Amino acid sequence: MLDKLLSVESKYNELLTLLGDATVQADPSQYRTHAKALAEIESIVEKFREYKAVVSEITQAEELAAGDDAEMQALAQEELPGLKARAESLLNEIKVLLIPKDPNDEKNVVLEIRAGTGGDEAALFAGDLFRMYSRFAERQGWRVDVLSTSENGVGGLKEVIASIEGRGVYSRLKYESGVHRVQRVPATEASGRIHTSTATVAVLPEAEEVDIQIDAKDLRVDTFCSSGPGGQSVNTTYSAVRITHIPTGLVVSQQDEKSQIKNRAKAMKVLRARLYEMEMRKQQDAIAKDRKSQVGTGERSEKIRTYNFPQNRITDHRINFTTHRLTDVLEGAVDELLDQVVTHFNAEKLKEATAVGN
Questions:
Q1: Which of 157, 114, 159, 163 is nearest to 266 (CA)?
Q2: 157 touches 106 (CB < 8 A)
Q3: 3-state DSSP call for residue 156?
Q4: What pLDDT sits at residue 280?
Q5: pLDDT for res 201
Q6: Any idea what DSSP says for residue 112?
Q7: At 45, is the secondary structure helix, strand, or coil?
Q8: pTM above 0.85, yes or no
């Protein structure tokens, strides 16, 4: 790892020199490229230099501790534990910084939640999950824009699709994709028997036009009268839009807005995100067949997390982590859970990176 860090530091110095070159400064495109490359490794170099400074202090302290001056020996021995702990801490920080960056981490996301197995109870749980993520987003200062919803008759959600915009949204939510299982006594259950239901969550990085090029001839656009709530004008004009991507067969419908133009724009946002997800899936499947972000079919046995109401417990089965703060989490206090999951997968990535490096 030391050789890799020295190489990164050398690259950093090289980029600094290039950015100071008049020829590079005269070419905005070239300057931006080098500036971006510099920014990507700057934090690693800063931590590495801090680490080297602490290692130098440790060497000096060890020399003093081995010397003849009793007073200096005592001072050095007193400082050494703190210096060594600081060096270890910096090394751990550097290891995290060396984990290959996910190019989608800073992207906004399209969040899709669908009721799975369990009928009305599954729809109610899907609504609970959407409220949980919405409240978490509010705490982060993110913007949530509902793109489409499909409700059931008891106040639950058969499906909800929303856009979440903000800094680092995908980096925080990307491991939420999968089957979420709930165990609780439904309000309609007279005998007090615990039911098990599921909902599926998909977190898709929002794709820009530069990420996914969609040819107009590959689209079939149909318009129709909206059937949902929204007033007389919604139900009597052809404002609803259904877009079919012919090559893949993907179909996206949007009817929440009164304007056909707005509905089309929202539908294209969802379509672009789904096509981008498909492309990412192909790339990931080529590397590893076990795609950790796979949502699955919504069956009870395919689960990433269980929400057990009688025990006020949430268990993430991927990392064997349990918390008894279910009520708080459903109110949006998801930070601890997300931190544990991100830390786990970062550690896995670090293992892979280290194995490749060796």
A1: 163
A2: no
A3: coil
A4: 77
A5: 94
A6: E
A7: helix
A8: no
Torsion of CA 134, 136, 141, 146, to 10 degrees: -10
Amino acid at residue number 336 = E
- Residue 23 is predicted with a pLDDT of 87
Helix axes 335-357, 70-97, angle to 10 degrees: 90
Q: What are phi and psi of 20, to 5 degrees?
A: -90, -5
Say if CB 299 and CB 117 are below 8 A apart: yes
Q: What is the pLDDT of residue 333?
A: 94
Q: How far is CA 115 from CA 81, 199, 254, in A?
A: 54, 4, 19
Considering only CA atoms, give the Rg of the chain: 26
- The rounded distance, in Å, linking the Cα atoms of 331 and 136 is 8
DSSP H/E element including 204 = strand 195-205
Q: Which residues of the chain have pLDDT under 50?
A: 229-234, 287-294, 298, 300-301, 357-358
Pair 15, 39: CB distance under 8 Å: no
Contact 172, 346 (CB under 8 A): no
230, two tokens: 């929204």
Residue 265: its pLDDT value, please?
A: 85
- 3-state SS assignment for residue 93: helix
Contacts of 224 (CB under 8 A, 6+ apart): 238, 240, 242
Judge contact between 121 and 186, C-beta under 8 A.
Answer: yes
CA distance 288 to 352: 12
For residue 147, what pLDDT is reported? Answer: 86
Which pLDDT does position 190 carry in this prediction? Answer: 67
Any residues with CB less than 8 A from the CB of 337 and at least 6 apart, and which? 314, 316, 321, 323, 329
Terminal Cα distance for the chain, rounded: 9
Strand partners, 183: 196, 308
Provide CB contacts within 8 A for 138, sequence distance 6+: 144, 332
Which pLDDT does position 311 carry in this prediction?
A: 94
Nearest CA-CA partner of 107 in 177, 203, 43: 203
Tokens at 88, concatenated: 């270890």
Q: Which two tokens stand for residue 145?
A: 């824009």
